[in-house]
Amino acid sequence: MPDKVAPAEKSVLSQSKAARSNSDEGIKLKKELGLWNGVAIIVGIIVGAGIFVSPKGVLRNSGSVGQALIVWIFSGILSLIGALCYAELGTMIPKSGGDYAYISDAFGPLPAFLYLWVALFILVPTGNAITALTFAQYILQPVWPGCEPPYAAIRLLAAVITCLLTVINCYNVKWATRVQDIFTGTKIFALVIIMVAGVWWLCMGHTENFQHPMSGTNTQPGYIALAVYSGLFSYSGWNYLNFVTEELKDPYKNLPKAICISLPLVTVIYVFANIAYFVVLTQDEILASNAVAVTFGDKLLGVMSWIMPFFVACSTFGALNGAIFASSRLFFVGARNGHLPTAIALINVRNLTPMPSLIFLCIITLILLIIEDVYVLINYVSFVEALFTTLSVSGLLWLRYKKPDLHRPIKVSIILPIIFFIICAFLVTFPCYVSPWEVGIGVIIILSGIPVYCIFIDWKTKPAWLINVSYNFNIACAKLFMCVQEDKTA
């Protein structure tokens, strides 16, 4: 919530000379991310648990192996087109915050706040909570062979790992990026094992699962949209590098390069990993499995099958670290623009990290871990995420018309955002017929942010008690976490 800042508060939140002396460039987030750090963030966030655990979502809605592979290829190409559109947005509007920054510049503060509202309480922490739960489940599985680990133990370990990664991200950006680089390499190695094992099985003459690849294909538009949704869910995260544009070295070059390296790499890996799954496992085996990679390992790797649960855990660990790193910058930028309490826009004077934003995100994630069935939230917000992605790309088209002379270091062909917009509009529209309840809940979640915006942001004559509460909260956070506001003159 934006608030009037009293002189005493300014003296604490603004930078002192002592704080400035800690850095020749002042207190602000530093440009410490190179090209390969950017690639590691994109690949590391995209390749989470999805490709190891739930390729069956694409297969179930596609109805056939052939169409499932087409959906995986199509989802990769669509993600690449979207990422190239975001490369133009990210270099045209070189601010951290991703969709929030682009929607704000194109359509104003209310739509931007509604995106922030949904991302703050549902999209980001829910995704982080589910990733942490998946990590915990696969780490604990060997301790309870043959049965599910107790959910209380899973939630406890998920909470511990969330707090650990938050501490790492609070302490040092380089530590966080080093963790990301290591675990991105680990998960790519795991997928290479799956691909090589699949090729070996195919070379032994096991082609029976590809005898009739299009048999059973589902041609209903609504279910095709749901199949693409499932595919895009496994590709989700391609826009997270845009959340940290201000920390990327030479973003005009490294942002598009990182995108052009990452998305084709992930698409090739995903398609060949799915081919390996389909070669080794029947459709019924895939649809009956809760973790396709583990079922694959049990059938093909023998005594080494234990490595699959280990690699799934490593993959989710890296994905969670990348998501915490990138998404905390979204809330940092939202607070810097006055859409969240000022405290969330503070930077630790020693480590130069957005510590309050990271801790705030951690707290919301921990709260969601208490919910008995956090997974149900995904059904309600997958539509919402697609809706705001559509809004961001429509913003690109609108800015082409509204501000044709705006400096665009990268300018993609107008055909790409038009294609992406049309496909996203299809993906947003058709699930309304197939899953009207989930879509309705998603719309309600969005609209619930409007009264919050009116009270805490648009209301200019707030009562004194509300201003004092905000003032005391911001001061307490600044003192507790040794933080100040960003040096905008540095």
From TrEMBL:
Q: Which UniProt keywords apply?
A: Cell membrane, Membrane, Transmembrane, Transmembrane helix, Transport
The entry's localization annotation reads: Cell membrane
Q: Which organism's genome codes for this protein? A: Atta cephalotes (Leafcutter ant)
Q: Name one GO cellular component term.
A: plasma membrane
Q: Which InterPro entries match?
A: AA/rel_permease1, AminoAcid_Transporter
One Pfam family cited in the UniProt record for this chain: AA_permease_2
Similarity-based family = Belongs to the amino acid-polyamine-organocation (APC) superfamily. L-type amino acid transporter (LAT) (TC 2.A.3.8) family.
Q: Which PANTHER family is this protein grouped with?
A: AMINO ACID TRANSPORTER (PTHR11785), LD25378P (PTHR11785:SF240)
**Transmembrane regions:** 33-53, 65-87, 114-140, 152-171, 183-202, 222-241, 261-280, 306-332, 352-371, 377-398, 410-430, 436-456
Its predominant location is membrane
Membrane topology according to the record? Multi-pass membrane protein
Q: Which GO MF term does the entry hold, naming one?
A: L-amino acid transmembrane transporter activity
Protein name per its UniProtKB record: Amino acid permease/ SLC12A domain-containing protein
